[in-house]
Specification:
Elements lengths: L12 H12 L2 H13 L3 H29 L3 H8 L10 H38 L5 H13 L1 H20 L2 H27 L5 H9 L6 H15 L5 H6 L8 H27 L4 H7 L6 H4 L1 H7 L3 H35 L3 H20 L6 H5 L10 H28 L2 H9 L9 H25 L6
Helix pairs in contact: 1-8, 1-12, 1-16, 2-10, 2-12, 3-4, 3-9, 3-10, 3-12, 3-19, 3-21, 4-5, 5-7, 5-16, 5-17, 5-19, 7-8, 7-16, 7-17, 8-12, 8-16, 9-12, 10-19, 15-16, 16-17, 17-19, 19-21
The protein binds tryptophan.
Length: 469
């Protein structure tokens, strides 16, 4: 079974790592993590996040890779096949279906935000070339106007989806592996450059203190840190499972999962160093008024700060290019998760599957694109009340607060309590060797108890009205 079905794509060993790291690293690392860390007062939040990555995200990532590679199927087929002889049987296919649905929804608005990075890349290029003085107020206004511009939102969303479809349609090796192998090193290089550049920034020392000081943390902060661990590692919805189904059996799953998690975390911390060095370079009073807890600093204040730095004219466009690349390698993995369902389960050709799913996801993203001001009704759409206002926020709330934790919970339960330990142990040993030293901790402690309890706590809190989208 392990090496079965010919005709499916297969990653090279390094290719797999690049693709999986590319999936993990995205807007979650560069846009979301810095701003939620800032809103949660740094230090302790970062520590909890690191613990959540190690104790919850990493074990579930390993589980996803195990089931993907064991069955050589995309999420739905993988659960159907793996659950054949377990209690629950075919009902477990629903976990895969939940993941495919979640990926569909997530991509519909993720590509939209990704489109903003392309727009800002263009903006910064033009600012750099024309040498205009970029000012806060004008930036805030132009960002607001950009959000409310329906055709522009739809246009950049379409552009990003089209590039994603193009890459995924080329296939696992020719498309995904080639593009991620090219983009990830470029991304790494740009990031290192920006981090080194921030060493000289007047805010660097304070940024480091903020990141690593230990202070009080709220219950909401705890929840947000755990929830973000899923999002940033791309686990809980079958994306890693899908990539695992293209992984060679010669490669070690535990070692790969550790490498992916470490790299993802490293990049998130680097993004914080870059952003906070800029943020802490302004004095406290200005910081309090400009930054608050805003999710939009990446597009409203950051450009101006870049242009106040030496080399800013080069660094600014480079930065948005970097965020765009990071987002692209993530949208690729989301589309692959959805498209591979049609390929494996419905017999679609890869090209047709990509066009159909890509088209549908683009269409489903249109209401999100119009809910940022362009359409009054969509902007006010709020079935969850104050927790999520507007169509876009409602979709994000549904995926981040419900589908991701629920998917992760069901996966942890499946591995911890239902799938025989013989099956998962055999697959883990494949390409790795002896796993007996830690296998019990992984399955018997983390997946069986730690992950479900932590996730149930999140779900309970979400029901209780806390939102961490
Ligand atoms: N991990 C990516 C980020 O941090 C987002 C992402 C890509 C994702 N694929 C996923 C999140 C699958 C959840 C599930 O930006």
């Amino acid at each position: 079974m392990a090496n079965g079905s010919s005709g499916r794509g297969r990653f090279g060993q390094l290719g797999f790592i690049f693709a999986a790291v590319g999936s993990a690293i995205g807007l979650g690392n560069i846009w979301k993590f810095p701003y939620i860390t800032y809103a949660n007062d740094g230090g302790s939040f970062v520590l909890v996040y690191l613990l959540a990555i190690a104790l919850i995200g990493l074990p579930i990532m390993m589980a996803e890779l195990v089931i993907g590679r064991r069955t050589r199927q995309s999420p739905v087929g993988a659960f159907l096949k793996a659950a054949k002889n377990t209690v629950g049987g075919r009902a477990w296919g629903a976990v895969g279906a939940l993941g495919v649905t979640g990926s569909f929804i997530l991509l519909s608005y993720y590509a939209l935000i990704a489109g903003w990075t392309v727009y800002y890349f263009g903006q910064c290029l033009s600012w750099s070339v024309r040498g205009v003085a970029v000012q806060d107020q004008a930036l805030g206004e132009s960002f607001g106007a950009f959000l409310a511009n329906g055709p522009l939102q739809i246009g950049f969303h379409l552009l990003f989806m089209a590039v994603t479809v193009g890459v995924v349609a080329l296939g696992v090796r020719e498309g995904i592996e080639r593009v991620t192998k090219l983009l990830m090193p470029v991304l790494g290089a740009i990031l290192i450059l920006l981090v080194v550049n921030s060493f000289w920034s007047p805010g660097f020392g304070e940024a480091m203190r903020f990141l690593f000081h230990i202070g009080p943390i709220t219950a909401d902060g705890l929840l947000e840190a755990v929830g973000h661990a899923f999002f940033t590692l791309s686990v809980g919805m079958g994306a890693m499972l899908t990539y695992g189904s293209y992984m060679t059996s010669r490669q070690s799953i535990p070692r790969s999962a550790v490498a992916i998690s470490l790299l993802d975390t490293l990049i998130a911390i680097m993004a914080c160093i870059i952003m906070f060095s800029i943020i802490f370079s302004v004095d406290a009073a200005e910081r309090a008024t400009t930054f608050g807890k805003s999710a939009t600093i990446l597009f409203t204040t950051l450009p101006r700060m870049f242009y106040e730095m030496p080399l800013g004219v080069v660094l600014a466009p480079m930065f948005y290019l970097l965020v765009g690349f990071a987002a692209l390698t993530s949208t690729i993995s989301l589309l692959e998760t959805v498209a591979s369902y049609l390929i494996d389960r419905r017999g679609f050709s890869r090209r047709k599957a990509c066009l159909v799913t890509g088209g549908a996801i683009f269409a489903f993203g249109i209401p999100s694109a119009l809910s940022l001001g362009a359409s009054g009704a969509l902007s006010a759409f709020a079935p969850f009340g104050e927790r999520a206002e507007g169509f876009f926020s409602t979709m994000d709330y549904t995926v981040s607060n419900w589908i991701l934790p629920l998917g992760g919970l069901l996966m942890a339960l499946f591995f911890g309590w239902f799938l025989s330990s013989r099956e998962s142990r055999a697959e883990l040993a494949e390409g790795h060797g002896d796993v007996s030293r830690w296998f019990f901790i992984w399955r018997g402690v983390l997946l069986r108890f730690v992950c479900p309890i932590a996730i149930l706590w999140i779900i309970w809190a979400v029901i209780g009205g806390r939102s961490f989208a």
